[in-house]
Amino acid sequence: MRHKLLIITIREISRDRINSMQNAEQISQQKERNVKKLLEWKGRNWYGMTKILPYLYLGGLRDANDVEQLREKQIDYMVSIHELSGRIGNTLDDRNILHIHIADVPEANISEYFMETTTFIHRARLAKKSVLVHCIAGVSRSVCIIAAYLIIVCDMSYAAALAYIVNKRPCANPNFGFRMQLAKYAGKRSFSEIMMRNQFDNEAFDELKANDKKMLLLNFPANFPPDAPNESAVCVDTKPPSSNTFLKKGCVEYMKRQNNPEFFNDANISFIDQTDSFLRQ
């Protein structure tokens, strides 16, 4: 009897040791994967801050903590969009930082912050103060926030806003859910602009808007004639897009001309088709 109990005990100990070794191996493998991901992340091409408009920059977490860049670009204000806790941007006063806590997932309701962030950015720009809009990588959340700003302040369609940002920052790629929210927001552009005008002096608002359009015309000539939209410039209009043809023409060709065909690949063309149905609801 004792012999049997001893055998059972030895087996249990052996099993526990095996399980412990397997767990240790799994933990070790997970650590290796994490280290590999970290090295890959560090090895990626770092764009640094991207100037979108005068006094408006787009970037990532690394940019927000780069003291030299912040001083060089004279960043006075920051829109910080991520789900991390803790202080970001140690050179800025907390009162000059707008914190938006949101994850980069399609189901996140980023559109509820569009008016708040647009107002914050515009107030700083009217005062000739530079703003950095950043998330973790400067690819999805911050791009979405700036696209919303361009839609309202520069009368751009959501497709034109994204195309313009991608031309400036090729890594820009908001997730599908954020793009759908931008498309819907663009349909309410007139109402959002009225709300903006109620907060700012109309003369100053129009002056900055005119200056921004001049800059966009220089950088986006094929698809941004603000005063005379035509067949070849279907990306920009004062009305929300009513058909997928409106979105596809011009914007797709523009991205091809800019050697960024991956931005409007088959998957994204499908996205545009789905957006057309979404806008008609």
UniProtKB/TrEMBL annotation:
Which is one Gene Ontology cellular component term of this protein? cytosol
GO terms under biological process = signal transduction
Q: Matching InterPro entries, A to Z?
A: Dual-sp_phosphatase_cat-dom, Prot-tyrosine_phosphatase-like, Tyr_Pase_cat, Tyr_Pase_dom, TYR_PHOSPHATASE_DUAL_dom
Specify the Tyrosine specific protein phosphatases domain's residue ranges. 112-170
Listed GO MF terms: protein serine/threonine phosphatase activity; protein tyrosine phosphatase activity
Coiled-coil portions = none
Q: Which residues form the Tyrosine-protein phosphatase domain?
A: 48-191
Keywords of this entry: Hydrolase, Membrane, Protein phosphatase, Transmembrane, Transmembrane helix
- Identify one Pfam family in the record: DSPc
The record's section on Gene3D superfamilies has: Protein tyrosine phosphatase superfamily
This chain belongs to the protein called Dual specificity phosphatase
Q: What is the lineage of its organism?
A: Eukaryota, Metazoa, Ecdysozoa, Nematoda, Chromadorea
